[in-house]
Design brief:
about 300 residues; Glucose Oxidase, domain 1; alpha/beta; two-stranded antiparallel ribbon
């Protein structure tokens, strides 16, 4: 765990955990292929109370003071950095697999040239318009460590994910949609400010989680931060190293700015951290991302 990670390591791990060609040369779904019809049916059998919980960040900045800074759900949809391409929408959203490129390639060995200024031609968000539906699992790290939120720059490592899941009574299964709560949005509301949230330092998944995600065949990962992975980056010679491996090489769907506080309270109340989860993107042709209203059904 202590060996340094650089750009060469990121490329090596990307090749090692690559799913290029796994589901055919024309595949544009990536790890969503792990959500089979059987997995959907199993997830549909999970709800017990019928309670529905939205994980969307309200598109209303009035909940915080006027000086609170830019609200991530009402930012210019073109704002925010991303490796290898223009940014996606703000608020709770999925990033299309087309959004991350390096060495001239996007997921499944498509040319970066398939990403013209007007949008994506390959692996765009409309390829997912049938929705992202399956078994959701909440990893509530602040509750696990008995803190209101994780500090900026906190690296979440594989043992942290395993320990939190075990404490919550869940085992990560193939095709799961992983929701990782860091408490970053909780902190914004507590401090009455969005300043520093969008594009700034954040707690998040370590690049060392790439192997963990690959081995467990996770279908999608979403977080309450703007970038899912830890910021500042663990690599000095490349940006967003986990995005490069997970999105570009593995074809793993990333969701950002999910508001997970209400879901965390619901899971703590009934002790059940697995649920039916649905989050359909808009069928935007050539889109590189889409706002969503993620729904957990318990």
């Amino acid at each position: 765990m202590s060996d340094p990670v650089d750009a060469q390591t990121v490329q090596d791990w990307g090749r090692l955990y690559s799913n290029w060609g796994r589901w055919g040369d024309e595949d544009e779904l990536g790890t969503l292929n792990f959500i089979t019809p059987e997995r959907v049916l199993a997830a549909a059998a999970l709800p017990r109370s019928g309670r529905v919980v939205s994980c969307a960040l309200p598109f209303d900045p009035t909940g915080l003071p006027a000086q609170a800074g830019a609200h991530p759900a009402v930012r210019d949809p073109g704002a925010g950095p991303a490796p290898g391409g223009a940014a996606g929408p703000r608020g709770a959203h999925w990033d299309a697999l087309a959004r991350v490129a390096y060495d001239g390639r996007v997921y499944n060995d498509r040319r970066e040239g398939d990403l013209p200024a007007h949008g994506a031609r390959a692996a765009s968000i409309d390829r997912l318009c049938d929705g992202v539906v399956g078994r959701g699992v909440l990893i509530d790290l602040p509750r696990f460590v008995h803190r209101p939120w994780l500090d900026d720059g906190t690296r979440i490592l594989p043992p942290d994910l395993d320990a939190c899941a075990e404490s919550s009574g869940v085992t990560i299964e193939p095709g799961d949609i992983l929701l990782v709560r860091t408490g970053r949005i909780t902190r914004c509301y507590a401090e009455g400010s969005w300043n520093g949230y969008d594009g700034g330092p954040a707690p998040g998944l370590s690049v060392r989680c790439a192997r963990w995600l690959h081995e467990r065949q996770v279908a999608a990962v979403a977080s309450d931060t703007w970038c899912v992975e830890v910021v500042p980056a663990e690599t000095r010679d490349c940006t967003m190293p986990l995005h490069r491996i997970a999105v570009r090489d593995m074809g793993l769907l990333f969701g950002e700015s999910f508001h997970l506080d209400r879901l965390a309270e619901a899971c703590a109340a009934d002790g059940n951290y697995a649920f039916l989860f649905a989050a359909a993107p808009l069928p935007a042709a050539a889109g590189r991302g889409s706002p969503i209203n993620p729904i957990a059904i318990k």
